[in-house]
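Weekly sync, protein design subgroup
Attendees: M.S., D.O., the rotation student, P.L. (late)

Item 1: inverse folding check
M.S. brought a backbone from last month's batch and wanted to see whether the design step gives back something sensible before we order anything. D.O. pointed out we never logged the input encoding, so this time it goes straight into the notes. Structure tokens as presented (135 positions):
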């Protein structure tokens, strides 16, 4: 039977991979919908170079999350980035008084990123403290 930490890590990873893959595509393609979404959250549009840089960071984070299924350290790094990024956006949303579905989505992705960070960190600590089998 799989441990609850592994199950939660897999679910959090799946949510993060799905959401940030879509985010990366939108940012790298400079889709107007992404600019409108950021404007709704922050009150201003991101410059094109920043949008492209965030898209590239999202791609790297998704790749690290996928790699984290075998090597949890990669997912810990991705989880730290995604938690920081979504936390900043959530702070903007709260400061601007956003509510409803936009705020719910921000809280969901922050929670998923934080769950990814915590569960993969637990897995990483267990792999470092578990002695290797003899022989």
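Designed sequence read out in the meeting:
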């Amino acid at each position: 039977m799989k441990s609850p930490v592994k199950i939660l890590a897999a679910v959090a990873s799946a949510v993060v991979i799905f959401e940030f893959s879509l985010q990366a595509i939108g940012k790298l393609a400079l889709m107007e919908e992404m600019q409108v979404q950021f404007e709704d959250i922050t009150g201003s549009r991101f410059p094109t170079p920043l949008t492209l840089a965030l898209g590239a960071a999202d791609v790297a984070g998704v790749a690290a999350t996928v790699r984290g299924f075998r090597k949890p350290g990669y997912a810990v790094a991705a989880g730290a980035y995604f938690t920081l990024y979504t936390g900043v956006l959530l702070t903007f949303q709260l400061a601007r008084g956003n509510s409803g579905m936009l705020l719910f989505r921000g809280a969901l992705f922050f929670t998923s990123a934080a769950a990814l960070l915590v569960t993969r960190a637990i897995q990483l600590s267990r792999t470092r403290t578990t002695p290797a089998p003899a022989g």
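Discussion: The mean pLDDT is 90. Helices lie at 4-28, 32-42, 48-67, 72-96, 101-129.
Action: P.L. to compare against the previous round before Friday.
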